[in-house]
Amino acid sequence: MAVAERAGTGGEASQAGYHAQIKAENRARIIRAARDLFLARGYDKTSLAQIAKEARVSTGTLFKRYPTKAALFAAVTSEQWQLDVEYAAPPPPGDPRYGLDHIGRDYACLVSRPGTAALCRLIITELPQMPELADIVGTGFAIDRGPFFDRLRDYLEAEAEAGTLDFRSADEQRLSASEVAEQFLGMICSQFLWPQLVRTDFVPPNPTDAAIVDEAVALMLSRYGTGS
Amino acid sequence: MAVAERAGTGGEASQAGYHAQIKAENRARIIRAARDLFLARGYDKTSLAQIAKEARVSTGTLFKRYPTKAALFAAVTSEQWQLDVEYAAPPPPGDPRYGLDHIGRDYACLVSRPGTAALCRLIITELPQMPELADIVGTGFAIDRGPFFDRLRDYLEAEAEAGTLDFRSADEQRLSASEVAEQFLGMICSQFLWPQLVRTDFVPPNPTDAAIVDEAVALMLSRYGTGS
Predict the structure, then answer these.
(1) Which of A38, A88, B5, B116 sits 20 to 30 Å CA-CA off B67?
(2) What is the pLDDT of residues A154-192, one digit of tens each?
(3) Are B186 and A190 in contact (CB < 8 Å)?
(4) Is B37:B46 a contact under the CB 8 Å cutoff?
């Protein structure tokens, strides 16, 4: 009896594992198909039915998970920021050189991935005619910053509280962590992402060994480091 | 006779002045019409004949000055950088706070003008299908930098030669003036120009009184200033 129960439980568990695996595979195929179609045809000219067909799932399966095209587009942009990132949470405070270096490198890697520039181009092209895209890209989660902005701001605040960084401004007031985050991400983004869109002679630097992040970190520490 | 000659010369001069004025007015009307049509219909869907009609000049007049649509588009983008700029040449070296502040403010003003973001959006949208645009935007004169990049690089080199700035790198080597120029313009551009394209909730800062340029200058001086 006990053995049969265990066997039964094991069977259910493996069946549940099988269903979870199918579900994850379906999700990955849907996201990939949606991304490919959005980038090839544009947001407006892509339908949920086309995506279901390309992903080899039923429209019922697709609609259950993503009831609108905007929801699916939001999932595609989120996915663009999810892979290969070391810090889901900010690093612990105490060593701003280490923390900024790692956040900066992860960010450089993600904005350098070809899909990021392509999605960015798509949004820039279609945004004026597609108010539904505004809800996705307009509320902080823009394609040039993803979840990085909030993480970096929280991290900078933690370093300031720990006394390792001091955000003095040019007029001897205090800058907010958000203002400093804009400087840091802006310097990196403007050398990895934007030139891909407006300069045809641009050769993207290798984000894993480029000195660009090192130099951005050095600028931050020269200005805001307390030496403690 | 002498009087008649002077009168004749004066008449010719005023006639030459009249022709020059007509020519300048025609040019301004052509650039304005081209810009309006490019932004309203896109580069591909705008013809030189439409521009001539909108500018109220003959197609002969238009073709004589701008034999191709690409040449006219290049003139439109150049014009975008020409107005209200204090420094056609770099400021004299010796006071990097003054020089960077002025170059930074002029640059912030130009990238903040609505036409800059609109032209940028047009280029980003049409660049993949329009190889003729690549010659205009791909060779250093991208819409995010115009003539500013070369001016700033030359200025930074002059300050380094004067000993007022020292471009040490994070690994104790030397950065080039171009690398430092990328940092400075990138920080400003990423807070004035790019957010207009990808964030619908973005409220552009006022470039003439925003602290963003002050803080970018302060960062540069903290890192590269020699104190001399």
Answers:
(1) B116
(2) 999 999 999 999 999 988 899 999 999 999 999 999 999
(3) yes
(4) yes
Chosen from A219, A221, A223, A224 to mutate, greatest number of chain B CBs within 10 A: A219
Domain shared by B107 and B74, yes or no: no
Q: H-helix or E-strand containing B214?
A: helix B211-224
Q: What's the domain range around A208?
A: 96-224
Q: How far is A154 from chain B, CA to nearest CA, in Å?
A: 20
ipTM of the complex: 0.86
Size of chain B, expressed as the number of residues it contains: 228
Q: Under 8 Å CB-to-CB from B64, ≥6 apart: which residues?
A: none
Residues 38-57 of A with CB under 8 A from B: none
B192 and B115 within one domain: yes
For residue A29, give the CATH number of its domain. 1.10.357.10
Q: Pick B125's closest partner by Cβ from A125, A201, A211.
A: A125
Mean pLDDT check: name the lowest of A72-76, B27-31, B32-36: A72-76
Domain identity same for A29 and A112: no
Q: Kindly report, residue by residue over B82-128, the tens digit of the pLDDT.
A: 866 666 778 899 999 999 999 999 999 989 987 899 999 998 988 88
Q: How far apart are the first and last CA of chain A?
A: 65
